[in-house]
Each structure stands twice: as C-alpha cells, then as structure tokens.
Specification:
It is built from 10 helices and 17 strands. The mean pLDDT is 97. The longest helix is centred in the middle third of the chain and has 13 residues. This is tRNA U34 carboxymethyltransferase.
Length: 322
C-alpha cells in the first residue's frame, strides 16, 4: 500500500493545509476500491525496485538520473524488466541509469513548446491535473517549482510515478494524488495550475474550467493544452462515438471558442502561445507501449483526417490568469 503520510506532513505546514480535512478519507476509500490483483502486482513491482540515490539528476532539460558508478548489466536488465511490467507507458521519456523508458508520447516536446511562455515557476506551488505517469511534475520541479502536485485517479499511473520516484532517490518535491479534480475542495491555493490533454475528455468543459479556477490563487496562472479545430467563435466539434479511436471525446472547440469559454469562466489576459499538429514522431508505438497509436488512428489515405473522417489532432496551449 502506498503511504501518503509524507505529503500530509508537507501540506500541513502550507496553504494546502485545508485539504487535510477531506483528503485522507478520500484516499482511504480510493485504496479500498483498488484492491485487486493488478494493483497488487504493480505495488509488488515497486517493492522490488531498488531505492537508488543518484549522483546526477537533471529535471531542467529532461528527466534523467545517473550514478558515478554505472549499474551492472544484470542490475540494468532487472530494473528494465520491472519497469516494462508497468507498461503501457504513455508519457515520458525517462532516462534512468542507462535505461531509456521510451513512452508513447514525447512529452518533453510539449514541455518545450510551453515553458518559454509561462510565468517562472521558481518557488511556486503547482498542480498538474490529469498528470498520467507524472513526467511533467519532474519538469516543473526542474523549472524551479517548490512543490508539484499531480492528480489522476488511474492506479497504473500512480504506480508508474512511485516507481520513478523510488529510482530518483524518493524525491519529495513532487507528489501524485489519485483523485479527480471534481473530488478536490475549492482550495484557491496553487500559484500555477496545468490542465494538459484533459478538457476534451470532460462532459462539461465549462465545469472543468471553473474547477481549475477554484484551485488557483487570485492572480494565479492557468496553463491549458487541448485539442482544437479550425474555425471562428461559433465552431465546436462534438464527435460521434469515437474521435481518433478515443471513446471519451466530447467537445473540441476552435481557438476563438476556447478563448470565449475561458473569459466566460472569469479568466483574463488570455493568450494562445502554441498551435501544433500532433506528428507521428511525437505520438507513436514503442517497446514500452505496443498497442495502437496515432498512425493507427489516422486515415491511411489522408493523414490530415482521423479514421472517422474528423480533422487530425491539432493542439493549442492557452495561458490565462485568475
């Protein structure tokens, strides 16, 4: 069982302390509902990973850990085998003592696209909503964040994060909490809130924007990355059963519509800092994620369309203030 005691001790001394009124009971319930064979197998993998103390850490340019004395071939193979058993790895990459966890997504590319435009994270408390394996939490720490908190209810992603954290020397500057944003009280305590690749999975996008706003301090900054379509302020795509083979895609707005949604929810200083077509190099199959990926989701005769006939994935990064 994963112990959240260190996180409780950290937030008891800062502006997140009111969260302790609800969080321990929520996490106890979450643990109770996730007692199954797969979760126990994943916990067993974490247990068998060595607690390593890296001599070299780089979160600024990558998520990399190394030691002055390299691991033996046997140690490398053992760690790689254990991490492979936590597949599929969707977000990465991680470079750990000569082991390259080559995830489906080049999440470092997304980070490089947004980091030049956001408010400096030095000394800030940040929240990453839908954090997956927690890759971006480490990049936030590398950019100077004092505390990076990720939330995501998926037990596999929690176990991936805890496995990486153990190999990073049990670093306590980043934490993964397995709940959804709808389960959080209105803390109004984070300097920066990230929501990347989440909005289009929400049945009510405006409710999601209000939930993000509720976690921000006054004058805090939202960084939101989402799928968008071409069009004016009247354009929103509401896909049928699937979009790029994803079942749970509800609303994909135009850039102008997204700006209106943000303004309607009370955000200001709204900027679009990047618009990018998702490439087959950024999202692809690897040894660490062997099931279908973007190349299988696009029309083989027209890569500008999904196999359902919708516009191929295009993503925009929005920055706004509370």
């Amino acid at each position: 069982m994963i112990d959240f005691g260190n996180f409780y001790q950290i937030i008891a001394k800062n502006q997140l302390a009111p969260w302790l009124e609800t969080l321990p009971a929520q996490l106890a319930t979450w643990q109770k509902h996730n007692i199954d064979n797969r979760y126990n197998q994943w916990l067993n993998i974490i247990e068998h990973l060595p607690m390593l103390k890296p001599n070299y850490l780089d979160f600024l340019h990558s998520v990399t850990a190394n030691n002055q004395i390299p691991l033996s071939d046997g140690e490398q193979k053992r760690i790689r085998h254990l991490l492979m058993n936590l597949s599929p790895w969707r977000k990465g990459p991680f470079s750990l003592y000569g082991i390259n966890v080559d995830a489906e997504w080049r999440s470092d590319w997304k980070w490089q696209r947004l980091i030049p435009f956001i408010t400096n994270l030095e000394g800030r408390t940040v929240l990453d909503v839908g954090c997956n394996s927690g890759y971006h939490l480490w990049r936030m720490i590398g950019a100077g964040a004092k505390l990076a908190v990720g939330i995501d209810p998926m037990p596999l992603f929690l176990c991936q994060f805890e496995a990486i954290r153990k190999l990073l020397g049990n670093d306590q500057r980043a934490h993964f909490i397995p709940i959804g944003i709808e389960d959080m009280p209105k803390l109004a305590a984070f300097d920066t809130v990230f929501s990347m690749g989440v909005l289009y999975h929400r049945r009510s996008p405006l409710d999601h924007l209000y939930q993000l706003k509720d976690q921000l301090k006054n004058k805090g900054e939202l960084i939101l990355e989402t799928l968008v379509i071409e069009g004016d302020e009247h354009q929103v795509l509401m896909p049928g059963e699937r979009y790029a083979q994803m079942r749970n895609v509800y609303f994909i707005p135009s850039i102008q519509t997204m700006k209106i949604w943000l303004a309607k929810c009370g955000f200001h200083d709204i900027k679009v800092v990047d618009v990018s077509i998702t490439s087959l190099e950024e999202q692809r199959k690897t040894d660490w994620m062997t099931s279908d990926s973007l190349s299988d989701f696009l029309d083989p005769h027209d890569r500008q369309k999904t196999i359902e006939g919708y516009p191929a994935p295009m993503r925009a990064v929005f920055i706004a203030k509370k």
